């Protein structure tokens, strides 16, 4: 199953623009459609979301969490989500460079 930008945005309560930015930055792998839209495979989204949630749990261990990495509203979700996405991308890049 393929997801739209809107599907992902609704899932984590961020704007469509935020999701598109993450796709453009390479944080989420997607296929660009001829009309300019994007589609993300369900498996890819689950992989990314799980990775980000795990990083959030490590970062906030000891706190009571809802299990969702963005539980504090859209503005904080955009900031926190982007920071987690940047951290994740850096880890991926480092692992590729270091073998």
Keywords:
99 residues, mainly alpha, 4 helices, 60% helix
Describe the structure.
- With 99 residues, the protein is mostly helical.
- It has a single domain (2-97), classed as Multidrug-efflux Transporter Regulator, Chain: A, Domain 2 (Orthogonal Bundle), CATH 1.10.1660.
- 60% of the residues lie in helices and 9% in strands.
- Strand 2 (31-32) and strand 3 form a beta hairpin.
- 21% of the residues are buried.
Work out the number of β strands: 3
Radius of gyration: 14 Å
Please state the average pLDDT score.
Answer: 78
Alpha-beta content class: mainly alpha
Cα shape: globular
Instruction: Record the strand order, biggest sheet.
Output: 1-3-2
The DSSP helix count reads: 4
Order of helices and strands: EHHEEHH
CATH domain fold name = Multidrug-efflux Transporter Regulator, Chain: A, Domain 2
Low-confidence stretches: 64-75
Q: Main β-sheet: number of strands, strand sense, barrel status?
A: 3 strands, antiparallel
What percent of residues adopt helix (DSSP H or I)?
Answer: 55-70%
């Amino acid at each position: 199953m393929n997801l739209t930008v809107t599907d992902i945005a609704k899932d984590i309560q961020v704007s469509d623009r935020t999701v598109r930015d993450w796709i453009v930055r390479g944080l989420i792998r997607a296929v660009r459609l001829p009309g300019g839209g994007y589609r993300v495979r369900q498996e890819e989204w689950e992989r990314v979301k799980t990775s980000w949630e795990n990083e959030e749990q490590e970062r906030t261990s000891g706190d009571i969490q809802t299990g969702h990495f963005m539980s504090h509203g859209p503005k904080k979700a955009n900031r926190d989500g982007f920071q987690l996405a940047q951290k994740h991308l850096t880890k991926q890049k480092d692992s590729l460079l270091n073998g």
